[in-house]
Structures are given as structure tokens and as C-alpha cells.
Amino acid sequence: MVREEMRAVGYLCPRCKKPVIARRSRFALAASGANVPCACGKSELQIDFDGEKFRVSVPCGVCGGEHLAECGADRLLDGEGIGLACPETSELCCFIGEEYAVERALAQLQITAEKQSAQGESPAAFTDTVIMYEVLSELKEIAARPHGISCACGSERYRMQVRPAAVDLVCEDCGAKMRIGAATDEDLDRLCCRMTLQIPGRRG
Fold first, then answer.
1. What is the extent of the structural domain holding 143?
2. Does some domain include residue 142?
């Protein structure tokens, strides 16, 4: 039995700022395109195919708008993949291709978007961009586990605020924060030892 070749579709939701990745077969994309909604229900990427070109409507997690792009079938269905850029900022806002390439591109996109939206932060570079990338990737893995990131108040709803040398996990319900260092090898080692993370919760 021949295994059907899959393609991954990824973007960053402009509303909840979380990465959205879906897998579709090449056959399904060519036959009917795809709709890729975010779990928050407030954004959806759409792909249509007219037999020659794909038309992609992308909710942009960088500028908050929506962009339209066209690309040939060979570029979208074959090879490592293609990235679509936000015309406002020239930053990548969508990637379609092999799953590992999409995950890598979205991790970098999340760094960019969080950096731009962080309140009160200047656009200065991260203390160590490589460590920050690895920390965000590790946080993504922890979050994917059952009850991977939670708060002592009982909530599992949170957001991330990226700083130059740390990532703050902020409970969406009680507002408590947990700071994760993201500047040194020791910061990364400490995080890699954790299977789950619990925000301490806000007292009183």
C-alpha cells in the first residue's frame, strides 16, 4: 500500500497568537483546497485551487490583517515548502510544505510576533536568539502534553509574553505570571528537565 504524501499548512492566529498547523494530503489539496481554522474560532486560513494556481487567504499574525496570495501547484505541493510574507512588514506569515519545515518556520514567526507585540519592550535583539528559539520550541512541546501548562488557580488558559531574555507565562484567568529564563544554556537545561509547568497562581 502506497503511503499518501502529506503537506502541512501553518500560520499564526492574529487573535490568540498561537501557531495553527494542519496536515492535508496532496490529493486533497489539489481536489478541494483546504480550510484551516484556529481552535479559538476567530481566524481561518483558506486555500482554493482552480486547476492551475492555488489562491491562499491568510490571517496574518504579524500585522493583524488578512492577505491574499497566488502560487503554482508545483511550488505548493512539492519540495520543502513555500513561505508567504506579510506585505506590510515583509515578515513570513504562512508556510506550506513539509511538516518539520512548517514547525520551524512557525516557531520563528511566533518569536517575531511576540517580540513586536510585547508591551513596553524596545525592538532590541534577544539576549541570545538561538536560546530563545529553543526555549519557545521546548515550551511548545510541554504545552502539547496533557495539562502541560496550567495555573494553580485551576485554569489551563494562558498567553506568552516574550522578553529579550525571558518568556512570561501569564494566566488568562487570574493574571498570575511565571517567568522562564531564555538567555543562557542553563536556562534551557532547566526547562528541558520539566515535563509540565504550573503558574503559581495569584493569592487573594
1. 129-199
2. yes
